[in-house]
Write a structure and sequence with these properties.
Keywords: Hydrolase. The chain is of the alpha/beta class. It is built from 9 helices and 8 strands. A hairpin with a 2-residue loop joins strand 1 and strand 2.
Amino acid sequence: MAELALEDGTIWYDTTGEGHPLVFVHGGWLNGRTWRSQVEHFADEYRIVTVDVRGHGHTGSTDPKRYSVELFADDLEAVCAELDLERPIFCGLSLGSMVVQEYLARHPDRATGAILAGALRSMPSMAVPPSMKLVVSPTPALTATLSMMGPTATFRSMLGSIRAMTGDRWLTVDPTVRSEALEAVGDVSPAEFRKVFDALYRYDPPNLTGVKTPTLVIHGDREAPVVARQGQRIATMVDHGRRIVVDDAGHLVNQDQPAAFNDESETFLADLDLPTEPEPTRA
C-alpha cells in the first residue's frame, strides 16, 4: 500500500492495474479489502485504486476530533490529485456511496461514472431534521456502549436493531461475509468508531439534481426497505441514473453476489464514454 501525508493525518491507499482509473470507497467500519473480488475482476482493464477511509483499515486514527462525510470527500479529492486521476470512475459502498455523492455534488461533470452499492443518503434510523440532530443525538449513549462493549458488540447491536425493523438479514446473506465484516469492525478503535458514527449521523446529503455523471445504483433484494427507497431517490435525482436489484444479496451486495455485481458493473462501464488512447504516430 501507499500513503498520502496530510496536515491532519495519513491516508492509506492501494493501486493496481493500468487503464482508466476506477476508484473504490468502502463502507462504514470496513476497509479496502471489501473490494477484493472487484479488484481481481477489473484490474486487467482499469487502474484500480482502493482507499482506506479515516478511522478504518491501514489509515486508522487521524488527528481531527470530529469526522464528517465532507472531510472524507476532501480526502478522496486529495488522493485523486496525488495520483493525477483524470475523470475517474467511482464505486462506493454504503458510507462510501455518501462520499461519492458528496464528490459528485461538488463536481457534477468531473467523474466519468459512478457505481453506488448499498446506496443511501442518510443514516436510515436517524431520519430527523438537521436542526434537531444535536438535540436528539445518540452519540453520548453510543460512547457509553462502546466503552462497555467495544466496537464489535456495538456493531452487532446496531445490526440487531435494524433487523428487528426489517425482519430480514439485511446486512448480508452469507455467514462468511458477516464474519469478515465483524473482523473489520474489530480493527476499528472505539474512539474512531464513534467519530465515524457521528459523521454518518450528522450528514446532511446534498441535492444531486443537475449531476450529469452516469450513475448506477445497486442494491441487494434483502436490503433494508428504507435504504432501498433512498437509493431509488438517488437514481431519479441524477440526470443519467438507474437502479438495479441483485437477487439473494443484502447490503454488502458486492460481497454477497460478486459475480452478479461484477457483471452488472461491467455492463454499465461498457456504456461509459471513456477517453480513447491516441493512435501511435507513424514515421
